[in-house]
Amino acid sequence: MSDTFKTGRADPLAASSLDADAVRAAYRRWAGVYDNVFGAISGPARRAAVAAVNRAPGLNVLEVGVGTGLALPLYRSEKRITGIDLSAEMLDRARIRVREQSLSNVDHLLELDAEDTGFEADRFDIAVAMFVASVVPHPRKLADELRRVVRPGGTILFVNHFAADGGPVWWVERAMAPASRALGWHPDFTIDRLIAPDDATALVTTKMRPFGLFRLVSMVNPA
Ligand SMILES: C[S@@+](CC[C@H](N)C(=O)[O-])C[C@H]1O[C@@H](n2cnc3c(N)ncnc32)[C@H](O)[C@@H]1O
């Protein structure tokens, strides 16, 4: 089910209250329970995103905000994976998963900031950010950094919950917004905080199960 690029409404009340330290603190708390709390509900969208990675041309994959590594066993063995995350505790879980499941195509798991990775330009064929865009302090910086490190013509994928465009769900999201810092993400996150409304280069968004709660955003990196 594809639909056209549609921006959410800008919400000045929901300006970012998540900085890197707040992210680290939140995911230090979440690390031990993350898979049990979020693994199932996020599973279909994660599988769809990794299937898109597996279909995309090229082998070098950057997964930003790799977390506990729930996606790592899903990549085709030919894909070479570099995972990065701000949270040492989430990465510890990912490393255990790699070791226990002998995931030999995971080349690196690094404690790095997805907004400023330090990788050389055009280093990757594909970048994917699953449930990360509404967590990073500056989503546009994340998008710019992924464009920088992915080669021209490469693939950039985001999976995320984007705020409803009105209706009761939107009110619930707005009500939850002040808890962003404790939650570790912005419930009222709109797509225009990630990608400028006039920057719809080869952009496809697809609603994901369950209930269209998550969207897969797929872009071809402009040359
Ligand atoms: C909701 S979790 C998603 C984890 C994983 N992608 C998944 O699908 O389960 C968000 C992850 O993004 C990480 N994160 C947030 N901001 C980041 C940043 N600026 N750089 C790298 N990782 C970041 C958090 O530490 C956390 O592990």
TrEMBL record:
Listed transmembrane segments: none
Q: Quick check: keyword Methyltransferase in the entry?
A: yes
Q: What is this protein called?
A: Class I SAM-dependent methyltransferase
Gene3D superfamilies per record: Vaccinia Virus protein VP39
Q: Which GO terms describe its biological process?
A: methylation
Q: EC number(s) for this protein?
A: 2.1.-.-
Q: Which terms in the Gene Ontology molecular function aspect does this entry carry?
A: S-adenosylmethionine-dependent methyltransferase activity
Return the Pfam families for the record.
Methyltransf_11
* Species assigned in the record: Acidiphilium acidophilum (Thiobacillus acidophilus)
Keywords, sorted A to Z: Methyltransferase, Transferase
Supply the InterPro entries for this chain: Methyltransf_11 (IPR013216), Methyltransf_Superfamily (IPR050508), SAM-dependent_MTases_sf (IPR029063)
Q: Where is the Methyltransferase type domain?
A: 62-158
EC top class named in words: transferase
